[in-house]
Amino acid sequence: MWIPYDIRASLKAESPPDAVRQSLADADQREFLVGFFLRNPVTQIWEADISVDGAPTELSAGPDLPDARVSFHGNEAGKLSEVIYRLQAVSHEQALAQAHGDVQRRLLRWMAEIGRGMAIAGWRIADPRHGARWRCTPFRPSAMRADHIPLGPVAADLAPVVELFQRARNAPDAASRLMAAFAVLDLAATHPALSRADAAGFRVTQDMLIHSGALASPELLQSMDLGALIAHLRPHHDRLIGPRGVLAPVLDDLAGQRRLALMANLADLAAHRLILAELRARREAARAPQGAAGA
Fold first, then answer.
1. Do 98 and 87 form a contact (C-beta atoms < 8 A)?
2. How far apart are CA 275 and CA 197, in angstroms?
3. Do the beta carbons of residue 189 and residue 196 sit within 8 Å?
4. Interatomic CA distance for residues 64 and 82, integer angstroms
5. Are the beta carbons of 273 and 199 closer than 8 angstroms?
């Protein structure tokens, strides 16, 4: 079963409803805590290749957030695993947006200085005044049954297309996921390996919007055919490609990243539906002669 891997648009309350309601109703400037979990993109462990030994306990976040303080916390191995901001804001969403903009560029500076990869794995927010907390972290899906293990390799003609889908599924960022999944959608109507995927009959369903998270998108996406979906996704895709056909230097804020994540999830899911339709059609075609012989 397809599941969304990018959860930036999801923020789950972890406090009693009354505490959350009180926090949402409070428009006063007050202190929030925002913590960002870090991830090593190679090992996928929630840590960065930075030792916290000797790191300051807490320091000023700098001129962009003059009233904020930032602290660095390690795991049992002594590696940096969480960066926590203490800052003033009028809402948990404002606090998250401000802290995210700072930590994103802070990670870019560290990466540029030391040459090691690192990424944000998720975050948590606390409003101490009201005891309200929110969290945005990936979940581990349950293991699938072994029904698919006996299946043989994918057909050689279809393998390059599925490899594009593999790139989308394995991509650690929404931009890469969107570009790889969009390529599958673009091929669906013309590539001979997808000739039985019924690209003409494809429609965006409410179920797809719910699973991808794109139900939150302000546009009316339900019932779009493949051509309309490609046209809708193309501006999101093309802005990532520069005029000379190479990747464009795009740095979105959190709102932009959330938007891109929803579109990438939808493209990813649509690509999977088309490939699955092709596989099922091939499976039915392989069974047809056997059924005819037994008739």
1. yes
2. 7
3. no
4. 20
5. no
The residues near 137 (Cβ < 8 Å, ≥ 6 apart) are: 7, 37, 121, 122, 123, 124
In the numeric block, the tokens 């007050």 are attached to 30
5-9, 93-97, 265-269: lowest mean pLDDT where?
5-9
CA separation for the pair 254, 266 (Å, rounded): 18
Tally of residues, the chain? 295
pLDDT band, residue 293 (cuts 50/70/90): very low
The pTM (predicted TM-score) of the whole model is 0.83
CA distance 92 to 250: 26
